Amino acid sequence: MRIDNWADRPILPMNYLTIFIEKLPANTPAGSSIYLASSVNNWQPGNNNYQFFEDENGNLSITVTSRDRWISYKITRGSWESEAADERGRKLSNTDYEFRTGSDTVYTYIDNWADLPRN
To answer: b/e string for 15-43 if b means 16 or more Cβ within 10 A?
Structure first.
């Protein structure tokens, strides 16, 4: 394939990723907003456009779109100080996801938050 200028660049198909949070830690403050910080939103930890939606049954989810083959992400409560952590409160590495079907679903859980002691 030859590309003479940006107008000749092929448009890549849009990929969709829905992320469900199956479980939050017991120490999550009531009424907390949960966000996705990722390569899709320039790693903004509290961007309201990337806030998880809570349905009538209390399930948290977000759907993001990307033309890239993969995305990297972290889950936060709105800042880097309050990002998801392991059971001991240590910050996690980025989660890297490679799209498989163009419309994928991931189920995850949060063990702890970096800024809160474990209950």
So the answer is: bebebebeebbeebeeeeebbbbbbbbee
